[in-house]
Structures are given as structure tokens and as C-alpha cells.
Amino acid sequence: MAELFGNLIDGLSFVTGVIPILTITLGVIMGIVAGATPGLSPSMGVALLVPFTYAMSPTLALILLVAIYIAANYGGSITAVTINAPGTPSSVVTAFDGYPLTKKGKPGLALGVSLVSSTVGGIIGTLILIFFSGPLAKFALKFHPAEYFALAIFGLTTVASLGGKNWNKAFIAAMFGLLLNTVGIDPISGVSRFTFGFSFLYDGFALIPALIGLFALSEIFKQLEGGDFSSQAVAPGKQEWPTTSTYWKLKNTILRSSFMGTIIGIFPGAGATIAAFISYDVAKRMSKTPEEFGHGSLEGVAAAEGANSSSVGGALIPLLTLGIPGSASTAVLIGALMIHDLTPGPQLFISNPDIIYGLLASLLIANIILLVLGFFGARLWIKVTTIPKTVLFPLIFAVSIIGSFAVRNSFFDVAACLVFGVFGWLLRRYNYPVAPIILGMVLGNIAETNFIRAIMMGGWTVFFTRPMSLGMLIVAAASFSVPLIQARKRK
Amino acid sequence: MQKVILDKRVKLTLKAIGLVLILLGLLIMVPKAQAAFPEKPIKVVVYTGPGGLIDISARKFAGVAAKYVDVNFVVENKPGAGGIVALKKVIQSPADGYNLYACTKSNIAKFVQVGGSQYLDALNWTAMLMADPECVITNGTQDIYQWSDVVSNALGAPGQQNWVGPAAGGLDHVTALKIWDAYGIDAKWIPFKSGGKALAALLGEQGIAYVGNPRDALGNADLHIAAVSSQERLPAFPDVPTFKELGMIGLENEYMWRGFALKKGTPPEVLAWYDNLFKQVTADPDWISFWSKGGIDVKYVAEKAFTEQVYKDAEIFEYYLRKSNIIQGEPDGALANLATGKSFLILSLVLVFAWLSASYGIFKSSYNALTGRFMIIGFFLLVSILFLVQSMNFPTSSDVGPAAVPRLWIFALIPLNLLLLFRTFRNIEAIAESGPRVDIVLNFIGFLVVYLLLMQVFGYFLSTFGFVIVGLYYLGYRKWKNILIISSSWILFSYVIFYKTLYVPLPLGSLFERLF
To answer: Which of the residues B475, B491, B503 would you substitute to probe the A interface, choosing the one with the greatest number of A C-beta atoms within 10 Å?
Structure first.
């Protein structure tokens, strides 16, 4: 333990120099912008900047990249709150309550809570990473495909409470998302499915264009249809910001979601999005005012942001302790390590402790810088909501087009984004929630590949013979049926 | 009076536009003067996102090559479809040597699977620069980690041993199939999303062996390289035996290679220029030392031998991909026939017609308030049925085939929709189906479609400029100065941030591609 603290202090002394602090600040700014731009996800933000880091020292390069990674995870919530265009898949959940708050004229509350929950979540995730990475990594390794499948099913059951009285439509949307996810090359057998011979379908539908279309575009179409585009969302003038007591009331939600986010973030592939959905679901069940969820609940915003930001710390656990990426962004970090001739994995703790502890210390610093920059930034972002809609809408269209193109530099994605936008608009007219489609697209791959792997390894019964998988499936079944039964009783 | 001035202005503008168009036309027609190669930056097209080994190779190459020639190499990432997207980019550009395709042996597997020999034939296989042997990695903390134990365990329990690795049909999978053939092993390949995730499964004791690159075992002391498929022991891993030493002949040449290809038809003088450059880079000490640490063999195999190698690899891939059912044979059975070609097209048309006419029927009936809701339900059912029919054509396998999970979702989707249909008709509740201004939405969708079409010709910047102006104007914004400021600043922003800083290759349009 003493050695750990000694190393940490060494790490801290390294990253508190002028150049590292400037690097982190630069990373945080770039990350916020990348995260806030729909179409630039954290992993893309990191990936796009990897080439720039080739010329830097390995430690500086890494702290720049993780600063971007952290800030991008937060940045996604800005556009989710202000224009209902989640910048990242995980901030879909932030939009559930953040955007209704903007519509009510209180974007300041949502932005404030999302910033503070993000940074607190980020710091908790980092602390767990520093102190418990060893045992947690061992635990994660024991996770069998059957358990991954059970986790995905658990994630899917959140649809039951998300959908409320529209549960029938919510499940249709989720199943449709899952089905869409099967388009493309089958990750297990390698055969192409539902591609109808088109090569642009081999990789299936990208998530980001679907996200932009279903959320941002469908929202604009809806508002255009309503004819209420002659004003702005929020009148300029005095804004309401959260007070210390607002944050204090949310402490339990933030802490709980941060722990859940870190733990779920550990499992390679599960990541920030599932963490946010599950944490939101749990927050709603534990809340004294569950009826506010979906209509501007601050607890909802805190649960979503706390979970998705703390998952960064979780995702770094398998990366640092095992050399295995826990998310798309950390996969890019591995590449960045390799270009600097460093081999990620446990040996790195021995061969280059300066890099590891510099990285850990910079995570803490980056979160603090994010809090400061975000505090001033929020006063700037909020201006977006005061732009007249006649100006805002054409610009959101322009952002959506460039954002969906940037994902894979493909026109197919742009067209898909537009189709998703029209489709989402039609669905919302008939009270279908669109978030379950995204959830289905995120979980589809994890559910399917692990379902098949589990059966290949242990036969059809494996889901029920492994205690952990069985336990998770039982919890999933309960979380699925309880809201339905409650809805029935209320009738 | 004012009207006259306006008319004059319009005429002047029209004249100016006409003049610009004529100039543009002339520019396109003027043939470009021939200059010595290279006269502009060379794009290195990488088929993965940044960060992977092939991306690192391309960037390292760009860095080292800059020492020898006075030209900029720009790495462009074109991920997608296992290299097909990047390939298409290269073969759709002129054969002038400015698009260098960074390829690996894994591409060959994908090309064989998707396009047969047509993709192989579209390229000039210019240079193989690196080769690293495949190896079998085991988990040193498990009882079975020595190669001989792996073999005897597998032979003792046929079909029971699990091997983990990346996607089925890729190089590592095919190497495993070859090893199994050589030893008469019957084992299972459990594919993971990436090599890293497969290694996690190996460390989590979910498999006995992993196939990949020796470099994968670095960094984690629990990982043990059981055998390597090279001619001789690798200098970087002197303790690892080769298959030959372990008594198996025929597995000493399983290499992963990385190299470069150009579009077929590239002029000979350009090829000669590259040949010279590859020789210089391969001999560069910085280049050699960077790769040798990971046990990667740096050698330059020139066009002729490389091309032979590529076609030989393709043959082997084809054999194993057919054997493991990844390349599909002819459709089998009546339902499978329905899923292919013309019969599927006819079926789709019939179903779409049925969907539309049923909707029309409802629209004309007393249930007409439900038309919209019915159409959505009908759409989901339509997609479910079409996907279900398609899935009849997927190959079957001993465990769960590729059709299993899509069908699982479809079998949930159909009853859920039927239930909703039943509930909708039983309980007709009024939903405010539409707002007052559907026309605005439809017009905007029209603008967006036109905008995307114009982008193909006039490029991103010009068409976006126009789109933003039209959008602002249509929504009733009339401050012309602001309109110009807003649209120009957006163009500037996307140029500086997306095009210049993030290297997003925004389309310049067919018009301008011919100009510059």
C-alpha cells in the first residue's frame, strides 16, 4: 500500500508540471468538443488524434488521449441536453431527462447536474481503478459468455420500465433494434446476413447515424410538424443553476450510479451505454418520485452521467492490468501504446511504472480540470438553447449530415441517418419510444455472440447451470415482470 | 425604379454565374500536363481505424519513407467490410500510383469470400514488407499448456477442446484448421471480436489454445507460446520451439504478411519508383529495429513473388472457407430457393403490395383512424417475414448456426406485433396523429435529399452552403447578412475542424475532383 502511494505521488508530481497540465487541458477541451459533436464518439475522438501523439513522449501522449476520452464521455451530454442530439451512445440516457428540462426552460439545471455527476463519477471510477484493479480484473476474467449474455438480457429488461404503459411498443422497438444489429457479417460464423449483396451492408448499420437520426432529426421533424419553430427553446436572460443543496440531495444517486458504472465498465465490450441504462433503471426504481423520470428528473440525469463517466475507470482496468481493451476507446489506447514501443499488460507496471502512475494521476487531474472548464463552458453551451429555432434547425441538420458521414466516411451512413430520422419521426407520432432501438443495437452484438459462444462451450443448459448466470437471469426476469405487474395493478 | 435596379442586378449575377460555369468547363477539358512522379502527396489507404497494427505499419512506413523521397505520405483510414471499402476506394481512383493500399493476408480471406478472384485481379501486388509467423499461445497457469499436452488432450476428447481467437474465416482461424488437419485434431473454434478479447478468454480459462501473433504474448507473463510456425526459432523468442522441432512437417510457413498494393495498370515508371523506395525502407535501421522487437521479420518481397504468394494464399483460403461453410454453396431446398434472386424479389413485391393494399382497405373502412398505426405494425411484420425467409438460406452448423439468433428476435417481434394489432383494434383510442404542418416536414425531407444528391456533384462545401441558406430562408429567417455569416461560418468550421484537423475526407464532388 505504501508503495502504491509512493508511486502515486511520483505520478502526481510528474503530471503537475506546466506542460502536462496544459496537455490535459488541451485534451479536455478537444474531448468536450468531440463528445458534443454528434458523430464524433469518444473512441473516434481518441482515434482521430492518435496520429498527433506519435511525435510526443509516451506518457504525454497517453495522458492527452485519456483526457480526451474522459471529456468526450461528458461532452456527449451537452448536446443531449440542449438539442436532444446525444453526442455519444451512452448519453442517450442523459437525453431522457435532460432534454425535457431544456423544454421546460431549465437547461442550466440539467447541464450543472450532468457536469458534477460526470466528474464525481469519473473520480470514483479512477479511485476504484487505482485501489482495486487487481482483484476486479481477476473477477472480470472469470466472466463466462453465459454471464455476458445474462448481463445483456438484464440490460434489455430495462425496456420494460422505460416503456411504461407503452411497453408493447417499447419491446417491438427493442426487438427491431436487435434485428437490425444482425445485418452484416455474422461475427461468429463469418457468413454475411441480410446484406442482399450490397457491400455497404457488410458492416451493418453504424450506431451513430441511427442515434442522430432517431433522436436529433426526428425531434426536429416533430417540432417542424408542430409548427412551433418561430421561437427559441429558452428565452435569453437569467438562468437557473443547481445549488449545493440540489447536488447534496442527489448524492446517493450519484454514488450508486458511479459504483455501478465502474463495475459494468470493467467487462470488455459491455461499456458505458449498458451502464447508463441499467443505472437509470435502478435509480427510477429506488426513487421517491419515479413518475418524474422521462419528464425532467434530475435524478435521471445524475444516474445516467454518473454511470457513463465512471465506466471510463472501469474500462481502463482490463487495459492496464491485462492488456485487454474494455471498450472501443481503450482499444485505440492499446494501439497508441504500441506505436510508442510499449506493450500493454501487467508487465508495464514493472517495466514502466512512471507511465502507469502518471496515467492514473492524470485521470484525477483531468476530472478536476473538466469540472472547472465545464463550469465555465456550461455558461457558454447554454447559449445554444437561446438560438432561434429557425437558425438552430438548419444547423442541426448540417451537424447531423457531417457527423454521420465522419463515422466511417461513408455516404451510406448519411442516407441511413436520414432514413432513421424519418422513421423515428413516424414512430414517435404513434407513441413508440425510440431509445429501445438504440439499446437493441448496442446490446445485440453482445447478446448474440455470447449466446452462441456459451452454447458452443457448454451446451444449451449452460445458462442455468452456472450460478452467476442463473442469478443474473432471475434478476432480469424480476426486473422485466415487476413493472408490468405494477402497471396492471394500477389499472 | 427599384424594380429596374433589381432586374439589372439579377442579370449581372446571372452573367457572372454563366462566366464561372464556362471557365469551369474549360478547366475540366484542358488535359493535365505530364509531370514526373510524384508531384503531389501520396495517400496510404488503411483498411482499419487508427491504432491497429496495419495502421501503425503504414504510419511508420510514411515516417521512414520521408527520409528517402521528397513527398508527403498521408495515411487515410477507410475501415469497413474487412478491407473491401478501402479496396473500392483504391480501384475507383485512377491507376496513377497516388493511392497505396496497405494490405495484409487477412484481406485475401475477405476478398476470396466476398468477391472471388475479381478483387485479387484488380490490384497490382506491389510489395510484401513484413511477415510474422503464426503461433499457438496457451495459458501457463492451466495444467495443459505444453504443446504435446494440448495435442494429447485434444486427441483424447474429440470435439471437446476449445480454441479461442478472432473472427471465423480469418487468417488465425484458417491456421488453426491447418494445424488440426496436420495433427488429426477435432477441436472447436470459439471466435471473439478481437484477438485481445480472445486472449482474455484464454486467461479466464475458457479455452486451451489461442492462435495469433507472437507479439500478442508479450506483456503478460501468464501467456505461454507453445509452438511457432516458422522455419527456425525466432530471435526475439529463443525459447519457443517450432512445429518442425516438435516433429510436424508442413506447418513451418504459416505467416501473416503485410505489404502494399496499387491499382492494376499503374505505369511501369511509377512501379520502378516504388520498387526503389521499398528497397531503401527495408534496409533502414530504424525500420528494422522497430519491428524486430516483436519478432516480426522485415523482408521485401517484390511484385512477382508477392503476386504468386497472394494467389497461393487465396487458393488455401478458398479451400478452408468452403470446408467450414463460410463460402456458401448453392441454395438447398425450396425455402432456401425462395430466399435468393428473382423469387425473393417477387416475394418482396407481393408482400409490399399486400401491406399497402391492406392499409388502403383500412383507410377506406370505418377503422380509418387506425391507418397510420396499422401501417407501422404492418411494416414491422413485413420486415420480420422477409428476414425470416432470408435466414432460410444461411448455412447450418453443428452447434447454433447464424440463423438462430435473428430468428429468435423475429419470433419475438411477430407475436409482439400481433398482440399490438389486436390491442389497437380492440381499444380504439384517439392519438393526435399529426401536427398541423406536415408539409414543412415533407419539404425539409425533400431539401435534404436534393442536398445529398447535389453533394455528389458540387461537393460538401458548396452544397452545404446552399442548403443552410435555403433552410434558413424557408423557415422564415430573413436577415440576409446573418444568413450569409451563419452559412459561411459553418463552412469554415467544417473545413477547419473536420476536413483539415480531423482528416475527414469530405467529398469535393465529381466536378471538383476533375479540376484538382
So the answer is: B475
State pLDDT tens for residues A302-334. 999 999 899 988 888 887 877 776 666 677 777
Instruction: Decide which of B209, B227, B253 is a domain's last residue.
Output: B253
- Three-state SS across B451-478? HHHHHHHHHHHHHHHHHHHHHHHHCCCC
- B402 contacts A186? CB cut-off 8 A: yes
Residues of the domain holding B69: 42-132+256-323
Nearest CA in chain A to B433: A429
Q: Do A199 and B88 touch (CB under 8 A)?
A: yes
User: Which of A30, A76, A119, A65 is closest to A371 using CA atoms?
Assistant: A119
> Nearest Cβ partner of A393 from B79, B437, B471?
B471
pLDDT tens column, B331-379: 556 666 777 778 888 999 999 999 999 999 988 988 888 888 899 999 9
**More confident site: B510 or A90:** A90
Residue range of the domain that includes A391: 2-490
Last residue of a domain, one of B253, B283, B298: B253
Q: How many domains does chain A have?
A: 1
- pLDDT tens column, A254-280: 999 999 999 888 876 667 888 899 999
Q: Are residues B104 and B237 in the same domain?
A: no
Asked if the C-beta of A26 comes within 8 angstroms of chain B's C-beta atoms, the answer is no
Burial tier of B426 (Cβ tally within 10 Å: 0-12, 13-18, 19+): exposed
The answer to the question of residue B395 being in a domain is yes
H or E element, residue B130 = strand B123-133
Reference A450, options A152, A136, A142; nearest CA is A152
Number of H helices, E strands in chain B: 18, 11
B128 and B270 housed in the same domain = yes
Chain-chain contact of B405 with A199 (C-beta, under 8 angstroms): no
To 5 degrees, how large is the angle CA B217–CA B316–CA A202? Answer: 75
Answer for the pair B103, B46: CB distance below 8 angstroms, yes or no. no
Q: Which residue has the cell 424479389?
A: B345
